[in-house]
Here is the input.
Amino acid sequence: MWLGLTPSETALMKASMGDASLWPHSFEVGRLIIDPAYRSGPELLKRCLLLALQQLCERTEVHNLFATCSPLLGRLYRRFSFSPLIQDLGCGGSEERFMLVHGQSSNVYGALSGVPATAQHGALAQRCLS
Here is the structure.
């Protein structure tokens, strides 16, 4: 993040929370496209997020994760240790409402993997600890 490319950055800037120093090592994770024939419920999103986070943590330090989503999807993200940060985002004149959710990588990793953040071991876990 912090290259002016993501909806999360735009939302944080509009809410006066866009100081990059407040959110070090941040990434947006809300752009997952799955063929409708393969959509099978929350477990698929959980698996995809875990794989994405593992790959990201193997390559760089990760502290903060953001996603812009519908309120319905926001409830699903809460299962994975994300919390609503901004509740009511408009979308360029559309009547559809969105929200911005945030999660600390260690908590999200723990929720996705089933291993509590305090019990995570190894280099991968260390790079995901915030």
Notes: The mean pLDDT is 77.
